[in-house]
Specification:
The chain is of the alpha/beta class. It contains 12 helices and 17 strands. It has a 7-stranded mixed sheet, covered by helices on one side. Strand 5, helix 4 (99-113) and strand 6 form a beta-alpha-beta unit. The longest helix is centred in the C-terminal third of the chain and has 23 residues, at 300-322. It is globular, with a radius of gyration of 21 Å. The N and C termini lie far apart (61 Å).
Amino acid sequence: MTGNVMGNIIIVGDLFPVPSNFSRFSSGDIPYLIGDELCRLFKDASYRICNLEGALTDNPGKCEKTGPVLYAPTATHNAYKALGIDCCTLANNHITDAGSEGVYDTMKVLDAAGISHIGAGNLDAIERELIFDVDGLKIGLYNVAETMYNAPGEGKPGAFLYDELIVCRDLERLKRSVDYIIVIYHGGAEKFRYPSPQTRRRFHRMVDYGANMILSQHTHCVGSEEYYNGAYLLYGQGNFLFRSLNNEFTDTGLVVELQFEGKVPTVKKHLVRAVGDRAVYDENQDFSSFYERSARIGDEAFLTEQFKKYCLQELPLYLNAYKGKNLVYRVIGRFFPDFRNRLVKKSYSRWQMMFMLHSIRSEQNREIVTEGLETLLDDLKCNAV
């Protein structure tokens, strides 16, 4: 430590092994995985937090889902231990990727390694908050995720999911016991560098009830920041060490450092970039585009327009899936994806689009569709056996 800094906290985004670096994680080869500069940053920290984006298990259970399925051998926990990670947040969309066994194994291996964890577990027993001391200050850490494939149920563990009433009551209560509250929120739109209107409203509401800092993970990109009523809000922390997509979004991330000189910390950000299956300190530390985006956060009309553009860009994926089995679209999409996207949009009548919107927007109909599809998938699974 230098100067009058009492203590500092390091928070990183997605930290998870991929097959190409399983052996490096298992041997705890931190100098290779993150380089000397980041090693020093972790070594000098008073407390270290990361998002464990998946399950650590040697006996994965089955998980029926679309998208990537993430789990790694339990031996890879040695990298988290070598990094000095004090707490792993588990409320994310991949914690259930290896089934119930994966959730339980992850918690067991972290417990055995002496690493705290919050955000996942059985339905009525999920620990979603942790209080720790940094040089005499009481810090509250709170972890919550958006609903994806991660919902807990009877006899099935999962992630702690956002329910505004519960979350706000929790934060209001926690505020009476601590000096500073950090919320790790796993949600937001992937590959979108601004907050959606819903995300921004949620963050503001959590601040109103006591949060001092909220970091949005899951977006796999460095987004933008905002100060609201004295609280620091980061809409998109990006990956730390997790090479899943390898594109302009996922190749950079932020290490957030809180330097305490009293009860109100200085927030310092460090840019990291991906190099192969490693993460290294970015020598340039160029935040110009980040600050340009952040300067537009207060312009609600701009944010709404950006989100509309993003949604229109992503919409063909959903429309194509709603069409069901269609060989013509599959063939066209393989060779002419842009043409397929235009074609599938035009294939819906106005009534069909209005009905789809109604089924998603209406709570009653959304519940009917969700329950119906889950039942249908269970029936199809039984018939396939």
